[in-house]
Amino acid sequence: MFTQKTANMVTTIIKIALAVVLVMPMFIMQTMPVQAGTNVGGPIISDTTWTLANSPYIVTTSVDVQQNVTLTIEPGVTIRFNSGTKLQVNGELIARGIADNLIVFTSNQANPAPGDWYGIEFTSVAVPVVVDENENYVSGNVIQYCVVEYAGFEETCAVNASSLLIDNCTVQNNKGRGVEISGSDTLPGYVANSVIRNNQMGGIFSERAIVRGNTVADNWGTTYGGGIYAKNSELIENRVIGNMAEYSGGGIFAGKSIVLRNVVENNTSQKSYSDRGGGGIYATGSTVSQNIVIANNSMSYGGGILADGGLLTENIVRDNYVKSIYGGYGGGVYVKGSETFTNTITGNRVLGSLAGGSGIFVRYFIQGDVLYNTVVNNQGPQDSTSGGIQFWNTSGTGENLQVHYNTFYGNVPYDVSVQSGFDISGTHNYWGTVTNLDILAQIYDWYDDDSRGKFLYTPYLQEPSPDAPLPPPTGLSANFQNDSVTLTWDVLPSFITGWGYKVYYDTDNSLPPFVGIGLNEGDSPINVGDKTSYILTGLDSSSDYYFAVTAYDNLGNEGWYSNIIARKLGGYWVYLPLVIKK
Description:
It contains two helices and 61 strands. It is mostly beta strands. A hairpin with a 5-residue loop joins β10 (130-131) and β11. Helices cover 6% and strands 39% of the residues. It is globular.
């Protein structure tokens, strides 16, 4: 007879059985051994694929991909290297991860550290990379969507190659330089869209290579080119930030290269040494164009840029400095025989009693004209004879040097200083004033010390040259009240019909571009005409805000940004790009 007691017993048995069924898989999972990975080493003599199913791969002794052999690595694979091992490629390596499933080359140590393994080496017989006209991968050696870290045993490079594409990778925490790539005129190497950071002997060495769209940050400890050391290369649209070199090129050292549209910020040339420096960029025989060079510093020459030959044009050089116990030269730019055209050089400094050339220091007059630049509001020691632009040489004459169509004003203590015994042709410049004696008071030359040459400044311009960059507005300040801000700035020294100002704001970044939206007066930028004060309303109390002002002229040209005002949650502060690194 099926009683209630029997029913209860059956129910209890079913519950116990169900619990066992549910718990058993967990028990099995907990007691199954963890996959140890696949050990690899020695020569690879036939085409091989390292699969995600067999990952991780443990390199117990160095791997050698032989000629005419391809090693393919699938997305998501991890390769762990024992101490002193490396991956050498004499044939072809195709390591193509994807954005959400990276390939990782790393240490096999329990507590990884830089230098745990040698790195990845492509020999001279490795298969060269082929890319299309847009530099997209077609065939050959490639490392794409990969991470390479903790390599550089005994200071070797983490990745060392000739014709290779490195794309969308992260190369970090290595003891040697992150990447060394030395291509040829017909078979260049490529480093693109990657992050190269925290490497102890520099970020990238490139020779006959194209280095484009990378972030190169916080690399240090090398004599030249803390971020990038380039020879016969193209460096285009990279962000080079927070790197350090002992002597030259804290951010970039470029020899016979093109340095174009890079942001070079907060890099350091650490040691004081004759004709060395270039906190941001050291360039010899190179074209340096359309770069933003901000807040770099040197202990000797060229806080922003040191240029020896070549061309400097259309760069923004702002808030860099030189500091030396002996006095530094060229807070913004130090030039030796370089053509210097249409640059904006502002807010730079030189420190030290013997310092000179807070904006530009020009050495050797035999060649290297200075034309159509805007050199304003740079600062040297008050008790010095430093100029916003300063000229010095030890031989030759200044008769071939042309200094014309520039804008000079607001530099402390002088706009121009002549430190040689030769006269300089300095006609057709604009001085922020049209009064002869006021201009003369801004120049330190023969009229102050008859051992020096004259700066021949007459005739001078009544208005800035339309081919020189517009100067950035100065003195931007703010008064915040509830959901509004009143911005006020100084009027430019010259203001002709059609000139005006634009007000910019943003909520997510203290660096340009400023593309804020949503305030009652409109989206950024707001054209305010010739006003030097403007009220913005509708600020969100839960957002940070950043404000800046630019000037434009009647030809549609627009200058660089003023100083930046920031309202942070809980208060406001002034953002100054200058960052002093110890």
